[in-house]
Specification:
Helix content: under 10%
CATH topology of one domain: Ferric Hydroxamate Uptake Protein, Chain A, domain 1
Distance between the termini: 46 Å
Strand content: over 45%
Radius of gyration: 31 Å
Structural class: mainly beta
Length: 1006
């Protein structure tokens, strides 16, 4: 019998009814949060901090075991009498005692306790630990940081907020992907540096789900991480060093991103609604030539080439097009406004034993392109927690169901908008139809008729059951399930072409991608705690069983009776299977951890894991990984005194260990074959695609770290400084083979070692702290360096023109630009070998490193009474390619407005080489050498107002019983940079950069 996940919505309805009915039943028979005790009067009030009501605050009747917990609106009710004392406690806040003077205490305000900053609990994956006792490097952001950013991808929330975590957006299209590097690049393979993503204990595959022939643009916008709804997240932790990541073994080589979603809390049933609307636009346009400047450039180019009679196809200068016409094509094609709307509704509550949360979110975003395109996402998040009456049994169920619908043009108009001649004809003719100007104009809007339709459905579910067997001994099992299904269609209708060509629907085409990923994981665990020898021993042992099944079917349909049927593959006259892939990834492991803390100042942490992966052959499938971490809280030594007001906290920590990497794909060690898809004498044949390599094994990453954490002036100044060094060896790469073998490469372990090292600094300060005014700042900066330590046989390998021993693996080999020849007017370059020819393999003597010198962020949080202001400045010191330098100046493409400062034959002077209409072959070759030279490497440093949020919380007396917050937010607001291109951070050419977004919203709960 086959069981499908959420088959026909049955499981969905079951979860929904379970979460609604059980908590309502529980709350109907008991008063949430109130212990059975004396029959006294009910005393109530509202607990809040600077940002508003605080749920989950413990309210204790001093001297008794009577207690309560505040609900989502910060409301509490407890049985007490006049003259008694209530104690209010919440992690990270100062405890507050209040003497009862009546049955309504009104607003109780708690203030953050700076001395508890180090007490913040951080999630280390299989266990939690206070920051004070942590021996590893773990960075964290919470829902308070996430909710201030109008973004759809969780990686966007990390930009500028975590030291050593570099996040770059790859596309400004709705649903665009992000690239993340945690402490640099360890693997020679760009796709071998992705971190491990864990969502509520469930590993989540982050590989792109799009197909090159069906995605809307390259880079692909079909990132599976868009399925994770930012508004559902409680916290994100990033594990960086060996001590933190070794317990994940091979999967933690490039760091681990732990995502924890929101959970239900005890209290009366409450409803919260958060809704905002916004608008997005392109941050910056490239400064291009106007019509007069452009036509002067074109005419000079023809004159330089000795052409006095303009060719028939030079429509811009031969009089075919109006020489007085001007269109700002960037404004016309990518200058629109993307409208954004998001609404989330959440229902939560429960008793002390059972809590629930269910929330739904709908998000919609249009594009800046002309036409009716857009991205929609709907999600359902649920959580159910239960604790038995004796507190021994605990169970929880957490999950999300996400549906995405992305409708985008298959062509990104950004590059086109920067190249069209400024005097090109109008987009529409007098009849409102696309204007082809008699066959002289390739109308850019025609490209929008080729569209991409992507539907993605994703289920992520985790169940956790634990039972206390004995005092200090707990057994636990975690089970997870993911199921992702994607349907991606790309239409190429005949209407894309000029009607004069006579192309009909019989020439229309459809590209199709059907992708499905299903995974399950089971992890039994044992946890033990014991007080021994004046300290505390914690032990963890567990095992992992995981399987990931993936299927992909790529098809093409050609020829339709009507374009109205183009999305129906069955209506195509011809169909062809382009690819059919099936893969199974199996993973098994055992892991353990021993932690001993003596006198709360000496801490030792040992972690280990034995991994098995199906991606390697017999005898190579298993490997051992482990780490040791140690910490010394020196501020607790007697020499510093118990109440040192200068040094309030000090800790030294260090770690060393190994992690692995199996990010090479499935079946890479095997002989594999693929169907040709082409019949020969009535039979479909097979073709070999990969060679067998039984020695294919694990990539190894050895990590070392030293760090200092120090708090001053009662922790109002808190500093963290870390040095790390990673050595990655046994590199998993494709080693090139001679073409005579029939294969271009064989997958193998390359005997090369890559070194990553750097420094990270974080400084948090409380500048002002008073009842009505607070100002807190947080500054982080990271400096990373990368180097190829060894590569035996590099000079004789195919990588000789790619890498240099002693240089970063991120270098670009370039020609050395020496200026413009005053005689020929051509760009010149260093002829390294002196043979009189500039050759690709001999003369690229410059190794340009585009790795940022340093990057980080500066965040400020200010509060004045009911007003709050939060802003983040992101900064990077780096170099980048001058992507928007254009094509050879003088041809029928617009240029940046500084391109006319070209070589003048009469004076022999010019910043750029001689203009050409395309007839000067030497100039064309010289230009392409120029684009491969260090002249293209420019300063792309920037400071960006990445995020700003202003909010106002209405006083509770304005709307009794309702908490209301109004807010304004901005993303990518301002950028200060010397870079002349569209965006200094962008690492790809010709694609829509990240948008500037402003939004306004309301957050209410009752």
């Amino acid at each position: 019998m086959k069981i499908s996940v959420l088959g026909k919505g049955g499981a969905f309805i079951f979860f929904f009814l379970t979460m609604i009915c059980l908590p309502l039943n529980a709350t109907a028979n008991s008063k949430p949060g109130i212990s059975a005790g004396l029959q006294q009067q009910a005393v109530s009030g509202i607990v809040a901090d600077a940002n508003g009501p605080m749920p989950g605050v413990s309210v204790i009747l001093k001297g008794t075991n009577i207690s309560a917990v505040t609900d989502l609106q910060g409301h509490f009710s407890i049985q007490a009498q006049t003259g008694d004392t209530l104690v209010f406690e919440y992690l990270g806040y100062k405890s507050l005692e209040v003497i009862i003077t009546g049955d309504n205490l009104g607003n109780i305000v708690l203030t953050e306790n700076a001395t508890n900053l180090k007490e913040v609990t951080i999630n280390a994956g299989y266990y939690s630990v206070s920051q004070q006792k942590s021996t590893g490097s773990i960075a964290k952001i919470t829902a308070k940081d996430i909710e201030k950013q109008p973004v759809t991808n969780i990686l966007a929330t990390l930009q500028g907020r975590m030291p050593g975590v570099q996040v770059t957006q790859e596309s400004g299209m709705p649903g665009g992907a992000f690239q993340i590097k945690i402490r640099g690049q360890n693997s020679l393979r760009p796709d071998g540096n992705n971190p491990l993503y864990i969502i509520d204990g469930v590993p989540y595959a982050s590989d792109p789900i799009g197909y090159s022939q069906t995605s809307s643009a390259t880079p692909s916008v079909t990132s599976p991480l868009n399925s994770i709804n930012p508004s559902d997240i409680q916290s994100i932790e990033v594990l960086k060093d060996a001590d933190a990541t070794a317990i994940y073994g091979s999967r933690g080589a490039n760091g681990v991103v732990l995502v924890t979603t929101k959970k239900g809390k005890a209290g009366k049933t409450a409803v919260s609604v958060n809704s905002y609307t916004g608008a997005g636009s392109v941050v910056n346009f490239v400064d291009l030539m106007k019509t007069g400047q452009y036509l002067a450039m074109r005419r000079q180019a023809y004159a330089n080439d000795g052409i006095s009679s303009y060719p028939a196809n030079a429509y811009d200068v031969n009089g075919t097009w109006d020489p007085n016409r001007y269109t700002d094509w960037q404004e016309e094609l990518i200058g629109g406004t993307a409208h954004i709307n998001s609404t989330q509704v959440a229902l939560s509550g429960g008793s002390e034993s059972t809590q629930f949360l269910i929330s739904g979110t709908y998000y919609k975003e249009s594009t800046v392109f002309p036409g009716n395109f857009g991205y929609q996402k709907g999600s359902l998040h649920y959580n159910l927690n239960h604790t038995s009456q004796n507190g021994k049994l605990k169970a929880s169920l957490t999950g999300s169901y996400i549906a995405q619908n992305n409708h985008l043009p298959s062509t990104d108009l950004t590059s086109i908008s920067r190249s069209i001649a400024p005097n090109a004809p109008a987009l529409y003719d007098a009849d409102g139809e696309l204007n082809w100007e008699g066959g002289t104009f390739n109308n850019p809007l025609a490209a929008l008729r080729s569209q991409v339709f992507t539907r993605t459905y994703d289920v992520i579910t985790n169940g956790l059951i634990s039972y206390t067997l004995l005092k200090g001994l707990e057994a636990k099992v975690s089970m997870g399930l993911t199921n992702l299904q994607t349907t991606e269609l790309r239409t190429l209708p005949s209407t894309m072409y000029d009607p004069a060509y006579g192309v009909g629907s019989g020439d229309s085409m459809l590209m199709s991608n059907l992708t499905n990923r299903r995974s399950w994981i089971v992890e039994p665990q044992l946890n033990y705690q014991l007080a021994i020898l004046g300290g505390e021993l914690t032990a963890l042992a567990g095992a992992t069983l995981q399987q990931l099944n993936s299927n992909a079917l790529y098809q093409r349909g050609y020829g339709f009776t009507s374009n109205s049927l183009i999305k129906d593959l069955a209506s195509a006259n011809q169909t062809l299977v382009l690819g059919s892939n099936q893969g199974i990834y199996k993973y098994a492991a055992v892991f353990g951890r021993l932690n001993y803390s003596w006198a709360d100042k000496y801490i030792l942490n040992l972690t280990g894991r034995r991994d098995g992966s199906s991606r390697f052959g017999p005898g190579r499938q298993f490997a051992n990984f482990g780490a040791v971490g140690a910490a010394w809280i020196f501020s607790r030594e007697n020499i510093f005194g118990a109440d040192n007001r200068i040094l309030s906290f000090g800790k030294l920590r260090a770690s060393y260990g190994t992690t692995g990497n199996d990010q090479i794909g499935d079946y890479q060690f095997l002989n594999t074959y693929a169907s040709t898809g082409i019949p020969y004498q009535g039979t479909i044949g097979l073709t070999p695609t990969r060679l067998y390599n039984p020695d294919f094994g694990w990539e190894i990453n050895k990590k070392l770290e030293f760090a200092l954490e120090a708090g001053f002036l009662n922790d109002r100044i808190f500093l963290t400084a870390a040095y790390y060094r990673n050595r990655s060896s046994n590199q998993l790469v494709g080693i090139p083979l001679p073409g005579t073998t029939g294969f271009t490469s064989i997958n193998a372990n390359l005997d090369a070692t890559v070194l990553n090292k750097g420094f990270e600094f974080t400084l948090r300060t409380e500048n002002i702290k008073s009842a009505s005014l607070e100002w807190t700042s947080s500054f982080n900066v990271a400096m990373a360096r990368n180097k190829l330590l060894s590569f035996p046989g590099l000079a004789g390998s195919s990588y000789a023109n790619t890498y240099i021993i002693g240089k970063p693996i991120t270098i670009s080999r370039l020609y050395n630009y020496t200026g413009v020849n005053p005689t020929t007017g051509l760009y010149t370059f260093s002829d390294v070998n002196g043979d009189g020819v500039i050759s690709y393999d001999k003369d690229r003597s410059v190794a340009a490193d585009l790795t940022p010198e340093f990057f980080g962020g500066f965040q400020n949080q200010l509060r004045y009474k009911s007003w709050s202001l939060d802003f983040l400045l992101q900064f990077t010191k780096q170099k980048n390619y001058d992507f928007d330098a254009g094509v050879p100046a003088g041809q029928m493409y617009n240029q940046r407005n500084d391109a006319d400062n070209a070589y003048n034959p009469s004076t022999g002077v010019g910043q750029h080489q001689v203009l050409t209409s395309g007839a000067n072959g030497d100039a064309i070759q010289s230009y392409y050498n120029y684009t491969s030279s260090n002249a293209m490497i420019v300063d792309a440093s920037f400071i960006r107002l990445k995020n700003i949020s202003l909010s106002y919380r209405l006083p509770s007396e304005y709307i009794p019983g309702i908490s209301c917050r109004l807010y304004l937010q901005g993303q990518n607001v301002l950028t200060f940079t010397p870079y002349k291109g569209a965006d200094p951070e962008f690492r790809t050419s010709g694609f829509l950069p990240p948008l500037k977004v402003y939004s306004a919203g309301i957050d209410i709960s009752f």
